[in-house]
Amino acid sequence: MFGLPVVQIILFGFALTNEVKNIEIIILDNAKDINSRQIINKIKASSYFQIQESVLNYNDIEKTFKKGNVKCALIFPAHFGDDLLHLGKAQVQIIADGSDPNIAKTVVNYLTAIIVDYQQLIAPSPALSYRIIPETRMLYNEEGNGSLNFIPGVMALVLMIVCTTLTSVAVVKEKELGTMEVLLVSPFKPVFVLIAKAIPYLLLSMINVIMILLLAVYLLDVQIKGNVFLLFFESVLFIITCLSLGLMISNITNSQQTAMLLSMMGMMLPTLIFTGFLFPLENMPLPFQIISHIIPARWYFIIVKAVMLKGLGFKYVWKETLILTGMTVVLLGIALKNFKIRLQ
Amino acid sequence: MNAVELHKISKTYDKGKLRAVHEVSFKVKKGELFGLIGSDGAGKTSLFRILTTVLLADSGSATVAGFDVVKDYQQIRNRVGYMPGKFSLYQDLTIKENLEFFAAIFGTTIDENYELIKDIYDQIKPFSDRRAGKLSGGMKQKLALCCALIHKPEVLLLDEPTTGVDVVSRKEFWAMLKALKEKGITILVSTPYMDEANLCERIALIQNGEIMSVDTPENIIKSFPTTLFAAKSENIYKLLNDFRSDAKVDSCYAFGEFLHITLKENGGSDIEDLKEFAAQKGHNDIFIQQITPGIEDSFIRLMQEKTQKPTH
């Protein structure tokens, strides 16, 4: 009753900001002259950026992006300073991770601002100005299509809420209606009850996933870059995780109402906030970042982004897959352990 | 071997604050139709839940079909047919679906034990596509009985199967129980209706969580220790109060349109004495007669004895 407003104020006040800080950036400096160093130093000095590492060649950039942490790269061409001084204009390339368009756009804006600032600083006179032209690329999402970000997020949210809520009432309903009493006095095993409860919802949710993907592809023009079957397999795994969570709620609660509230309210807010598709996780205070690790949707979100938008294979998401599997086993274990073989 | 045995079973709720049953012991023989008779809140449902292993007793031990209710609970669950007091089938499934479901979870089919449920099922068969939630009280109970019987249980535990059922359906239901008993199934049935006690082979009278008496209905009636009189007059309420003020009267309570009276000491001219007493109090149309007591009279008498000399 009093917990919810407090939690919400704290969450929205502290944790949730659209401002991006500590962006991990990599810089490829082919020029290595005074001007490029000066810009790099300016970036270093800014609280927005954290220079991660200096890569040596162009191919390394994409590799680092696939690892997932680095959000953008800045590339100086050879003779950057020469061009600037002699021709009066020079180019830099900014590559941002477009699989998160909101962050990508913010990052590009920050970088451009720093560059423009530098440009004014070195201008000998207002009439004679140097021009640095940033050329921007959104990796994985050239047009900066916003649906790209929210499709994986919506998939995570919808599956989480639907699967958890549906199964959360499944067992507790039997307790409430009294059918559990006769069901107990029979040869059935608790584990079969749980499986039997989960299967219909598993099938329904699989149809749900297919529907969402079809809509995403044909209505919102989102390309599925990776393997569709891998995406589907990961989705099924996530569905099972959510069903297990629902079953656990169902086994520890005593009324349908509590179960519903717990799965709707209790799951909706953390999923929205801690998945990372509305508010960047990187900027949250450390405690919130730690909390976000126990939200299954967070891991699924990462997987979907990797497979669907970046076209990565299983070897890039095996860790997240393993985490989801582990969560499922634990949740099912708790559900089974809390299955009451007697009435209270 | 007894089909059901209870030995000093006690159960409390709310951490001991609420006493449900206290040191209950009785035995049900194999193949017997045994009735547990008691008013609402006497502890009947708690006993049923303990026997069906869905509730743990605080102390005491019990066996059903030879298995311990705590240790071998799964064995009992495989072997008994249970009908809880509250209608507990799936309301949104039809009659047929419910039956098929319960057959399936017991690993059997409707056809396999059809012989056992045939007589009962035939009565609800015309409605087999109707949802269980839409059935009348009597039909619900018949369906629940079918579901409890579908796996050919050794012991049938029926918790108030006739509560909320009309008189005709109650009669039918008891006829069914008789027929099932003939097929060798042990039946333990509870009821708050005293008139149904006579339909059982043996009964246990339970009140406030304690067993007052276990015997055949005939013996319980026979053991009624004194002569019982029925009385009636124009003003029955005044008559009740008047008799209660009479020093010779032991107990007097309303029973239908009559008062049932017992005396502290019986003499040769009791009826005349009572009539004279009533006439003195100004009653007209006085009618007094000696009657044979019923189960309810025994029950009330046992209850009074309990309250008059509290056991603890």
TrEMBL record, chain B:
CDD domains: ABC_DR_subfamily_A. The keyword Nucleotide-binding applies. Pfam families: ABC_tran (PF00005). The keyword ATP-binding applies. Residues 4-233 form the ABC transporter domain. Keywords: ATP-binding, Nodulation, Nucleotide-binding, Transport. GO terms for molecular function: ATP binding; ATP hydrolysis activity. It comes from the Bacteria. Gene3D superfamilies: P-loop containing nucleotide triphosphate hydrolases. Belongs to the ABC transporter superfamily. This is ABC transporter ATP-binding protein. It comes from Dyadobacter frigoris.
